[in-house]
Amino acid sequence: MAKKNVKELETIRKNIKICENQEKILLKEQKELERKERSHRLIVRGALLEKHLKEPLIITDDDVTKLLEFIFKQEPVEELLNKLLDYRKDVIVHATPGIWAD
Questions:
Q1: How far apart are CA 81 and CA 47, in angstroms?
Q2: SS3 sequence, the chain?
C-alpha cells in the first residue's frame, strides 16, 4: 500500500511540474501577444497622428507633444474624450449601441 502511495505521489508531482511548465509557456505567450498588440496600436495611432500633421518631416517630437497638450487641454476635446471613454467602458460591460448616434 505504501509503494502505491509513493508512486501516486510521484505521478502527482510530475503532473504539477507539467502544469507549472504549461503555465509558464502560456504566460510567456500572453506577454508576447500583449507586446505585439501594443506595438501595433502605437504604430497605427502614430500613423493616424502623422496623417493630420501638415509637414510631419519638419515637426519635432517636442512640437507634437506641445500640440497634443494644447489640444487635450481644450474643454470640448476633454469632454469628448471623457464621453468616448465612458462609452467604451460601457460597451465592454454592456455592449451598448454606438456613441456617434447622439
A1: 20
A2: CHHHHHHHHHHHHHHHHHHHHHHHHHHHHHHHHHHHHHHHHHHHHHHHHHHHCCCCCCCCHHHHHHHHHHHHHCHHHHHHHHHHHHHHHHHHHHCCCCHHHC
> How far is the C-alpha of 52 from the C-alpha of 62, rounded, in Å?
16
- Rg of the chain in Å (alpha carbons): 25
Q: What is the pLDDT of residues 10-62, one digit of tens each?
A: 999 999 999 999 999 999 999 999 999 999 999 999 999 999 999 999 999 99
Q: Is the pTM of this model over 0.70?
A: no
| For the chain, domain boundaries | 1-52, 56-102
